[in-house]
Amino acid sequence: MALLLAGDTEAAEAELRWGYDTLRSMGERAGLSTVAAYLARVLLVQERYAEAEELTAESEAQAAS
Fold first, then answer.
1. 3-state SS string for the chain
2. pLDDT tens track, the chain, 65 positions
3. Which residue in 7, 22, 42, 57 has a CA-CA distance of 20 to 30 Å to 48?
4. If phi over 0 gives left and psi between -120 and 50 gives alpha, with beta otherwise, what is residue 27?
5. How far apart are CA 34 and CA 28, in angstroms?
6. Please, is 13 exposed, middle or buried when counting C-beta atoms within 10 Å of its C-beta (0-12, 13-18, 19+)?
7. Judging by beta carbons within 10 Å of its beta carbon (0-12, 13-18, 19+), is residue 63 exposed, middle or buried?
8. What integer pLDDT is reported at residue 7 of this predicted model?
9. pLDDT recorded at residue 5
10. What does each C-alpha distance from 28 to 7, 25, 44, 58 come to in angstroms?
Protein backbone atom coordinates (compact mmCIF):
# COMPACT_ATOMS: atom_id res chain seq x y z
CA MET A 1 0.00 0.00 0.00
CA ALA A 2 2.97 2.32 0.43
CA LEU A 3 3.41 2.44 -3.33
CA LEU A 4 -0.22 3.44 -3.77
CA LEU A 5 0.14 6.17 -1.17
CA ALA A 6 3.27 7.37 -2.98
CA GLY A 7 1.23 7.61 -6.18
CA ASP A 8 2.97 4.78 -8.03
CA THR A 9 -0.13 2.81 -9.01
CA GLU A 10 1.68 0.75 -11.66
CA ALA A 11 4.23 -0.56 -9.16
CA ALA A 12 1.51 -1.10 -6.56
CA GLU A 13 -0.50 -3.12 -9.05
CA ALA A 14 2.54 -5.20 -10.04
CA GLU A 15 3.35 -6.13 -6.44
CA LEU A 16 -0.24 -6.83 -5.48
CA ARG A 17 -0.88 -8.81 -8.66
CA TRP A 18 2.17 -10.98 -7.89
CA GLY A 19 0.88 -11.61 -4.37
CA TYR A 20 -2.63 -12.29 -5.62
CA ASP A 21 -1.46 -14.76 -8.26
CA THR A 22 0.88 -16.50 -5.82
CA LEU A 23 -1.74 -16.88 -3.09
CA ARG A 24 -4.34 -18.02 -5.59
CA SER A 25 -2.03 -20.72 -7.00
CA MET A 26 -1.35 -21.94 -3.44
CA GLY A 27 -5.05 -22.13 -2.60
CA GLU A 28 -4.57 -19.66 0.27
CA ARG A 29 -7.91 -18.02 0.95
CA ALA A 30 -7.52 -15.76 3.98
CA GLY A 31 -4.62 -13.75 2.61
CA LEU A 32 -6.13 -13.81 -0.87
CA SER A 33 -9.22 -11.93 0.26
CA THR A 34 -7.09 -9.11 1.70
CA VAL A 35 -4.75 -8.85 -1.28
CA ALA A 36 -7.70 -8.91 -3.68
CA ALA A 37 -9.27 -6.01 -1.80
CA TYR A 38 -6.05 -3.97 -1.92
CA LEU A 39 -5.62 -4.75 -5.62
CA ALA A 40 -9.20 -3.67 -6.25
CA ARG A 41 -8.44 -0.36 -4.56
CA VAL A 42 -5.46 0.22 -6.85
CA LEU A 43 -7.58 -0.59 -9.89
CA LEU A 44 -10.20 1.92 -8.72
CA VAL A 45 -7.57 4.63 -8.63
CA GLN A 46 -6.66 3.62 -12.19
CA GLU A 47 -10.36 3.87 -13.12
CA ARG A 48 -10.51 0.18 -14.07
CA TYR A 49 -13.90 -0.29 -12.48
CA ALA A 50 -14.97 -3.63 -13.96
CA GLU A 51 -11.77 -5.37 -12.82
CA ALA A 52 -12.01 -3.74 -9.41
CA GLU A 53 -15.60 -4.95 -9.03
CA GLU A 54 -14.60 -8.53 -9.88
CA LEU A 55 -11.80 -8.50 -7.31
CA THR A 56 -14.09 -6.98 -4.69
CA ALA A 57 -16.57 -9.79 -5.22
CA GLU A 58 -13.79 -12.37 -4.96
CA SER A 59 -12.49 -10.74 -1.80
CA GLU A 60 -15.93 -10.95 -0.23
CA ALA A 61 -16.37 -14.58 -1.31
CA GLN A 62 -13.00 -15.64 0.10
CA ALA A 63 -13.20 -13.71 3.37
CA ALA A 64 -13.87 -15.48 6.62
CA SER A 65 -17.45 -15.22 7.79
1. CHHHHCCCHHHHHHHHHHHHHHHHHHCCCHHHHHHHHHHHHHHHHCCCHHHHHHHHHHHHHHCCC
2. 666 666 788 899 999 999 999 999 999 988 999 999 999 999 999 999 999 999 999 999 988 87
3. 22
4. left
5. 11
6. buried
7. middle
8. 76
9. 62
10. 29, 8, 24, 13
Q: What is the pTM of this model?
A: 0.88
Buried b (16+ CB within 10 A) or exposed e, 21-45: eebbeeeeeeebbebbbbbbbbbbe
pLDDT at 3: 66
The residue among 31, 34, 1 whose CA lies nearest residue 15 is: 1
Spatial distance between the Cα atoms of 24 and 45, rounded to a whole number of angstroms: 23
